[in-house]
Amino acid sequence: NAGVTQTPKFQVLKTGQSMTLQCAQDMNHEYMSWYRQDPGMGLRLIHYSVGAGITDQGEVPNGYNVSRSTTEDFPLRLLSAAPSQTSVYFCASCLGQDSPLHFGNGTRLTVT
Amino acid sequence: GQQVMQIPQYQHVQEGEDFTTYCNSSTTLSNIQWYKQRPGGHPVFLIQLVKSGEVKKQKRLTFQFGEAKKNSSLHITATQTTDVGTYFCAGPSGGSYIPTFGRGTSLIVHP
What we know:
Radius of gyration of chain B: 13 Å
Mean pLDDT of chain A: 96
Low-confidence stretches of chain A: none
Number of strands of chain B: 11
Mean pLDDT of chain B: 94
Strand content of chain B: over 45%
Helix content of chain B: under 10%
Structural class of chain A: mainly beta
Oligomer: heterodimer
């Protein structure tokens, strides 16, 4: 099992550009989520999904879109990047509610 | 939404000293999870506590869940340089079905 795979590992964008952060898991987990990590702020939930076709907003959803067309994939889209979105992004998955989270290796995004 | 507060934000210790981080919630938690993130790495699940007053040990790490299920602690005995990292607690958010994380405690161990 590869676990949770995130691509790319690093990305530099200019303000206003769009991009998609990819996340895939091969553990047949129902729940998937995206977090951003900023210094001193811990892990803040952006969007999450409790199954294919179901998504919902977390604590900091503005500027991000998600979709969940398959159980395996949960991409995160930045439609118009802003410097405030410079961060490290983690995708995570778990079996269900209250189950331990399995994290990907993260994507370090810089927006100039 | 529900929040978990974690203190301290940073802790410097000499190798061999003990370390404790605390997690507090204003509401009762059904469970609490602990994660460790090494510098440059991703969070890795350590343990989950479910029962009131529960104590679990993993070698030099001791995890406790308060009697009221509103607080938890992680204690490391005789720290080693391999313990360096950020320790997070995470509790149910009450709405999103996905855990809400504390801000973490970064442990720095001086040899």
